[in-house]
Amino acid sequence: MPALIFDCDGVLADTERDGHLPAFNQTFEEFGVPVHWSDADYAEKVKIGGGKERMRSILSPELAAELGLPENPDTWGDTVRAWHQRKTAIYTERVAAGVLPGRPGIRRLTEEAAAAGWILAVASTSAEASVRAVLEHAVGPELAGRFQVFAGDIVPAKKPAPDIYQHALRELAVPAGHTLVIEDSANGLQAALAAGLATLVTVSSYTAEEDFAGAALVVSSLGDPDGPTAEVLSDPLGIRPEGYLRLTDLAAILRAAPTIPPTAEPTAEPTAEPTAEPTAEPTAAPNASKTESEKP
Lower CB count within 10 Å: N or C terminus of the chain? Predict the structure, then answer.
């Protein structure tokens, strides 16, 4: 069976502006760090893969001295980890409070994919606790249980390195040609392409102006029948979704996408091959009709 791998932040929910940014700023305030990121500041910070890496980026020698940290940057890791642990807790509290609803089409498409037997996963550089919280609120606890989650520091290099996707391919035991990624950022797209994976991009609040060359399809969102429509921004394969993305559109991307040679070899190969080609139609997919709607 084919596999569908989602990024988390900006894909399952538009988490950056209303989730991560206020959590970072509250953490800095609680720890007495004289930093407060504006929206414009954070638009640059999101280009850094990983929350701990974003936090560490503020630590100039001058700020480290002001905070009473040792001169050697190699000793700052424990401080950054403490900041990030607290930031993750604040963020998950915001998710639990319901301030970060799933993006259009996420619940509907995952229901269709699950009903058709697709393998479902999330691959993210965010902390695993944060990813699982967003996933459960985006698709519901029952459907979230169908996902494998690959997140946090399980690989040595964050996106745009392909490590997280190479790891996911090995764990899922599917070849790249039967796997579709949904991303929202240029970093994520480059990570997926470097792993040899066809990629659908749903732009988010901080990424709309990024370069998505190489994406199989770029849309404003996945869309919903009775909700926001999916505006097509780039369609090099001629998929031509009508108003919102269907599972048939995702299967069409896998059929039409050219073979993408990975630019970095994985450390191990998948152990098993799938036994079926991507299915063009789900066999018992809910909400497959244009007249039906499932809000995320």
Answer: N
Tell me what pLDDT residue 265 has.
58
The two tokens of residue 182 are: 């949904």
pLDDT tens digits, one per residue of 149-205? 999 889 999 999 999 999 999 999 999 999 999 999 999 999 999 999 999 999 998
> HEC string of the chain?
CCEEEECCECCCECHHHHHHHHHHHHHHHHCCCCCCCCHHHHHHHCCCCCHHHHHHCCCCHHHHHHCCCCCCHHHCHHHHHHHHHHHHHHHHHHHHCCCCCECCCHHHHHHHHHHCCCEEEEEECCCHHHHHHHHHHHHCHHHHCCEEEEECCCCCCCCCCCHHHHHHHHHHCCCHHHEEEEECCHHHHHHHHHCCCEEEEECCCCCCCCCCCCCCEEECCCCCCCCCCCCEEECCCCCCCCCCCCHHHHHHHHHHCCCCCCCCCCCCCCCCCCCCCCCCCCCCCCCCCCCCCCCC
User: Which stretches of the chain score pLDDT less than 70?
Assistant: 264-296
Catalytic residues: 7, 9
How remote is the C-alpha of 284 from its chain's centroid?
26
